[in-house]
Specification:
single chain, about 190 residues, alpha/beta, Rossmann fold, six-stranded parallel β-sheet, about 30% helix, binds magnesium ion, binds zinc ion
Length: about 190
């Protein structure tokens, strides 16, 4: 018989924990087959804005880790992306939330870099910047299996936000929820 899985609640998440957030599909709406190249194309997911304040109060660190190969494709400049992120962070602050650091991979898949998720280069950078980050006390929230692979590689807890796969299985995620609201209810 399979051991019943621990509930998220039993992890007792507190300020000693870190939350790694994927961006597209979690913070803002994913543009299928495209990229957010301008601020006006950046559309917050309402549940994210609703819960980021509460999540910021719960976790010690809030860090965004995102693959942005739109830079390698020259669809947006580094300066342009920085502007989008500046506006994003300021909107998050207005809702009582915070982002302690944001890392992005600017490379193309073929570049073979060490930072494109599921590789863990961005995690290692975060760990260098914040010495008290513990991967065993970190949650990764993402909408792709590659985010869950990323979580698993470093021994972090992977939470897949996926309205479609919730309850179906066949995922590397430790937990699957339909949205951030259900995740918040599971940890609070
Ligand atoms: Mg995503
Ligand atoms: Zn990279």
């Amino acid at each position: 018989m399979k051991k019943p899985k621990k509930t998220l609640k039993s992890l007792n998440i507190d300020k000693s924990w870190t939350l790694f957030l994927d961006r597209d599909g979690i913070v803002n709406k994913l543009i299928v087959g495209g990229y957010v190249c301008k601020w006006k194309e950046f559309k917050f997911i309402p549940a994210f804005l609703k819960y980021i304040g509460r999540l910021s109060g719960k976790f010690g660190h809030i860090i965004i880790v995102t693959n942005q190969r739109c830079i390698a494709k020259r669809l947006v400049s580094k300066k342009g992306l920085a502007l989008i992120h500046k506006k994003m962070v300021s909107a998050i602050k207005k809702r009582g939330g915070r982002v302690d650091r944001l890392y992005y991979c600017p490379h193309e898949i073929e570049d073979g870099c060490s930072c494109r998720k599921p590789k863990i280069g961005m995690l290692l950078k975060a760990k260098k910047a914040f010495k008290n980050i513990k991967f065993a006390k970190s949650v990764v929230i993402g909408d792709f299996e590659s985010d869950m692979e990323f979580a698993r590689k470093a021994g972090m807890t992977g939470v897949l936000i996926s309205p479609k796969t919730a309850g179906i299985g066949g995922t590397k995620a430790d937990y699957v929820y339909e949205g951030l609201e259900a995740f918040w209810k599971a940890i609070k």
